[in-house]
Design goal:
This protein has 177 residues and is an alpha+beta fold. The chain has helices at residues 18-27, 36-42, 88-100, 114-125, 160-173; strands at 5-9, 48-55, 58-67, 72-79, 104-109, 129-130, 135-137, 147-154.
Length: 177
């Protein structure tokens, strides 16, 4: 029998797994992540949720997302490096998609590297689709840079109007621009 991942919503700061902060800081380049205090501050935002991923009571990753009326926006998703390529990320995201029962949108780097191409293919296996349109991840602070990205969506591509509305919603709520 395949090991089943568990998705456990973080309800207060004391529930952070010790590995969570280390993984968050290592998994994303500085321009693509918040400062740790910003993560802590966002635990008070009712639209922002952190789900920790466990396998047999062992922390293996997380999903950080925002809930909007029209869709769910996954801001960050990561699996511990030593647990990658074992199917846990696929299993966790598949379970997440089926639990939220809403359209899901996320950002990915452009396919300019082997890692970025592999990541896009991972999401495509879960039926995420790359959307047309220009998208930059706004900087998280004045000391960080905007990053050219792509928006992917599940279960279908967004129309041009839907893309612009999603982009606007993300920019205002997530990045405060």
């Amino acid at each position: 029998m395949q090991n089943q991942v568990e998705l456990i919503e973080l309800n207060n700061l004391n529930d952070f797994d010790d590995e969570f902060q280390r993984l968050y800081m290592q998994a994303f380049p500085a321009d693509e992540r918040r400062e740790w205090q910003q993560i802590i501050d966002l635990t008070e935002n009712i639209n922002h949720t952190i789900v920790q991923i466990y396998l047999k009571s062992k922390f293996v990753g997380f999903i950080i997302y925002w809930k909007f009326p029209e869709f769910i926006f996954i801001e960050h998703f990561a699996i511990l490096p030593e647990e990658r390529s074992k199917g846990y990320g696929f299993q966790a995201l598949e379970k997440f998609i089926h639990e939220v029962l809403e359209p899901v949108v996320l950002e990915v780097e452009e396919p300019n590297s082997t890692v970025a191409i592999k990541r896009i293919r991972f999401y495509e296996k879960l039926y995420f689709r790359i959307n047309s349109g220009i998208y930059f991840q706004p900087p998280y602070s004045v000391t960080k840079n905007a990053v050219k990205m792509l928006l992917m969506s599940f279960p279908k591509r967004l129309s041009e109007t839907e893309f612009e509305k999603a982009k606007s919603r993300i920019y205002k709520a997530v990045y405060r621009v």
